[in-house]
Design brief:
This protein is globular. The two termini are 29 Å apart. The protein has 206 residues and is of the alpha/beta class. It has a seven-stranded parallel beta sheet, with helices on both faces. The chain has eight helices and seven strands; from the N terminus they run αβαβαββαβαβααβα. Helix 5 links the parallel strand 5 and strand 6.
Length: 206
């Protein structure tokens, strides 16, 4: 089991208690977003998790989940087939569309499914195949919990935030216009946990 820093425990608590696990975790790189997400999964006692990430991070997710005692399977290839369900499914963006039917079935086996979207800035284009696939997954399976991870909060490109915010909180962000008035403070108040390395570790040498 991972031992968390105080700020990571605070992050886990904010994700669950303030945002009901429907938010963005946007800590700067190096502050342990993956570990915090896994602890959210454990604290909520979810036994169905879909983790979507770049292909290069699938092994990292697998290693950290197993270290935390979470059974998982990594999906590969563009031809879907039945895979025995485990606590977590790890899949990369490029093959989402091919496995959509299986993922909808998997999520439907439990009403407390959590969807974790790593490097969520990959969904900045609402017309991309990957974005449409995740929106379709949410529409068909209705995962109760939705957590996006990104170290790039797009403060200066708010329209690029719309697709991921619409996936995580479609009730708050129904149209593109809903993001135009967002400020960093509004984002943190409504949907985002964000800490900087210098704030968390003020004495760390650069």
């Amino acid at each position: 089991m991972h031992t968390l820093y105080d700020y990571q425990n605070d992050g886990v608590d904010s994700i669950i208690e303030k945002f009901d696990c429907r938010c963005l975790l946007s800590d700067e790189m190096g502050l342990g977003k993956t570990i915090q997400a896994i602890h959210v999964l454990l604290k909520l006692q979810c036994n169905r998790a879909i983790i979507i990430c770049p292909a290069s991070l699938k092994v990292t997710w697998q290693r950290e989940l197993l270290k935390a005692g979470v059974s998982c399977v990594v999906l590969d290839g563009v031809t879907s087939h039945f895979v025995e369900p485990t606590d977590a499914i790890i899949i990369n963006y490029e093959i989402l569309d091919a496995w959509l039917g299986y993922l909808v079935w998997y999520a439907g086996q439990n009403q407390d499914t959590i969807l974790i979207i790593d490097e969520a800035q990959a969904l900045a284009n609402q017309y991309a195949i990957r974005t449409k696939a995740i929106k379709k997954l949410c529409k068909l399976s209705h995962p109760q919990y939705r957590l996006g991870l990104t170290g790039t909060p797009f403060y200066n490109r708010r329209l690029e935030l719309y697709p991921i915010l619409n996936i995580i909180r479609p009730d708050l962000f129904k149209r593109q216009d809903d993001v135009l008035s967002l400020t960093p403070k509004k984002l943190r108040d409504m949907i985002m946990v964000r800490r900087r390395v210098n704030d968390v570790f003020p004495n760390r040498q650069q």
